[in-house]
Amino acid sequence: MKTIVDRLAGITPQRLRGMRRGIEKESLRVLPTGMLALTPHPLALGAALTHERITTDYSESQLELITGAHGDVRACEQELTQIHQYVYRVLREAGNEMLWVASMPCGLPADETIPIGLYGTSNIGHAKSVYRMGLGHRYGRRMQTISGIHYNWSLPGVGNDEYFALIRNFRRHSFVLLVLYGASPAVCTSFVAGREHGLQPLSPHTLHLPYATSLRMGRLGYQSDAQASLSVSYNNLESYAASLHEALTKPYAPYKAIGIRNPGGEYNQLANSLLQIENEFYGTIRPKRVIQSGERPLHALRERGVEYVEVRCVDLDPFVDIGIAAPTMRFIDLFLLHCLLSDSAPDTRDEIAALARNQHAAAARGREPGLQLQRSGAGVALTDWGAELLEGCAPIAARLDAEFGGRDYRDALAAAQATWRAPHTLPSARVLQAIEGADGGAYTAFVRQRAAQAQSDLLALPWSLEQQGEFEREAQASLDRQRAIEAADTVPFETFRQEYVSAKRLMPG
Known about the structure:
The protein is of the alpha+beta class.
């Protein structure tokens, strides 16, 4: 049987140098008070529908900043920094708003007051808003204001079966990322107002769990009881596609009761199936393919295969101005290569259920001494299992440094191992320590202070007239593209909607 070292030796230098990563980073726009900004998406940032680097996620108040795919970690970090620099300049001009630098949200208004994203008058723009309206009806708007980092990663020459083997191992081992980079152990009380939560008071307006790593990835975060009924298999593209196809096409009684439209004729949701569209499926990692205009993601996967994976379980790091540091990116590269190069048995229904329990345990209690996870039907200490996985990354780090020069990957691994051995130095522990030292011991006071510092730091970086001009031209071009899309529409929205959610759009051919 081949080892990781054997498989690593089989990857040519050219393929390793062809590794690419890109980042999507969500952040709420907030007022200096730490409350959600209810203003529209700033016009100077361009059109959220068509801008390739600056858009919105769920809410009109929730920016999503997107880099291209980079072969160099520093270049990826630099592009994300420059996007931030432009955004902060626009926000300063528009009224001194800031970006919230943590995953769990700021002070929130009543659920129905949180503004959903608006994308203009075109059919596709209207569909994006209706989809968000549906998410609000299904899960509540507050849940959608949680923000995170999505890490998009690819390696040349990896086929569908290899990508799905990677995904299976990632799902087994993602507790490592939750513990190492989880930074959401506490939350403002406004987030859970009126709902059962099981959290403990930390101060008058702050709730927490003492050993939590990532409330965002736990039961209070992007979770859905309805989706828990989905036992999606990642054994191959066919089984994955079949699982999603059913969830996208079969009516789901509680959502059917919501109705497509309300009595006044306004749209409640795009469809009454368990998932309105593919993006509604919440997972720690997704197989992805760049889609063509108007194409459904599942059709693209079935037609042309997996192009990259999207890692979705990384919290914003409130101690890093742009939300993610270069050593974190390098460790994720190592981790994904380890998942790719390790043996990967097929998944089963029992294992899928055990992995969900492991995720919730790592998210809510990841720093708890002696915590046990389930592996192959038996208990194993989280600390021991994680240490074993980190050690397995050592030959990969050495090989990458040999290819790229320096010792950046070995240093990233050493830093991860050091924090693994010292749980009080993990981001989630540091967040709790910082909250206790903040004004009133409040979560929002800590994040507001860090948000102001990030704003100051990024506005102080060098910025040229050429850079300003490039972003302004990009914003204007996106507005022009949106107008062109709106002018080209020829069918009523209901016709467009029925065609878009039809089962035939999901099939290859």
